[in-house]
Amino acid sequence: MEFHFSRRWFNAAGFVICGALLGYAYFLQLHVGLEPCPLCIFQRIGVIIVGLLFLLAAIFSFRGRGARVWAVLLGLFALAGALTSARQLWLQLHPDAMASCGPGLNYMFQMLPLAEAIKRVFIGTGDCA
Fold first, then answer.
1. Which of 53, 60, 100, 101 is the most buried (most CB within 10 A)?
2. Comparing C-alpha atoms, which of 80, 83, 10 is closest to residue 49?
């Protein structure tokens, strides 16, 4: 019996990997006590979006042009998540480049315009280090 790797299997595997990443993040939060910083929350949102896109791609199994459009969409969201992760790694390697503490994500979104809140998240605080 020969096993054929189809696009559907690849997308299903991507969904499972995203679920595992989120599961590990929530394990660290709930059982180890590591509270996520605002940048971590942005990364989780990115993994959720990519995971849902993988799931939809696995369910509908697009072909031809639809598959290419779906792949570009997945790639763009995955790239955005990777860039967010890279920013956090840079902040962790350069802790002197950010403020020692800052407001929480809920506070920023309630009190600041959206663009300013997002800008402050990417500037980073001591929570990111």
1. 53
2. 80
CA distance linking residue 40 with residue 38, whole number of Å? 5
The residues, ordered by sequence, that sit 6+ positions from 129 with a Cβ below 8 Å of its Cβ are 91, 92, 95, 98
Q: How confident is the model at residue 24 (pLDDT cuts 50, 70, 90)?
A: very high
CB count, 10 Å around CB of 88?
19
Record the tokens describing residue 26, joined without a space. Answer: 């929530």
Q: Which residue has the tokens 């639809």?
A: 66
Q: Where are the alpha helices (DSSP H) in 94-126?
A: 105-111, 114-123
pTM: 0.79
Instruction: Tell me the sheet residues that pair with 99.
Output: 125
